[in-house]
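Late entry, evening session. Most of the bench is empty. Finally got around to the prediction I had been postponing all week. Sequence below, unchanged from the version circulated by S.P.
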Amino acid sequence: MYPNVGLSKLSRYKRKFLGDSTSPKGGKRSKISTQTQNYIARNLQNGSLNGPKGVQSYLLTLGIEMSLRGIRYILKSEGFKARRKVKTNFVNATNKRKRFAWTKKYQQHYTVDDWRKWGFLNRLESICGAQMENPTTGRMEDGATELLSCQIESHVQEDGGSISLLDTLEYYGLDRKSFRFQQDNARPHTSVPIKQWFQRQGFSLKSILDWPPQNPDLNPIEHIWNQLKRRLNEYPARAITIAELEARIPQKWYKFTKEDWLKYIDSMPNRIKAVIRSKDGPTRY
């Protein structure tokens, strides 16, 4: 019934009459048309569809039921790779306008040397919870006006005390009139007693409060806290008590070099450019 033709001869006939054409792939035909796949790809790229679950919901509107596993397979074949979303700060419309005005103000006239004259403040949320077993809830503040539950400061003295802003300025011989101190305008920083304290100490409120809201991506000290937590994670076990955590922090903190700090401060021009490129929204910083 079938001619006795060898495989090699069939291969020669195929090359002769069909050239380089390929045979269609076997298997079940896809439920999703090529046009629909292209539409899904475009909307994943512009953010209109949110991952496989978003694709699954869209397909249901077309009357197509498909498992997440099947959707992931199709997306992988289209060149998409699964990645965790980058966590960024939320910026509302009002604060976007403030971010834009602030970044434009400092983009043109500020150099790396200018940024090195700034002192940056921020609080590190729940470092106790991240580094301790059975932690006590608290936060870290790099200021002289708040008592911290964790008793963690940028500097930790041998007696367990804290180094205030004024102590730091005196130690390094910095003039408070020319030194630029930055705050993030959180409510504790803008209260009347805090403002009065800065005024009594000879600081300019206009310069201290010149910082747009919802801007952790512009504050280089955020990366310092991240590096500190990474170094504390090098211990084989977490601290059990606050005293143990306090003993560990200076051991890691004083290993930071001048170059470690300048690397992040010198990134300020690039941070500002990133905000402008993102149309005043959040950035990867």
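Two things to note before I forget:
The two ends are 72 Å apart (CA to CA).
Residues 14 and 22 are 10 Å apart (CA to CA).
Will write this up properly tomorrow.
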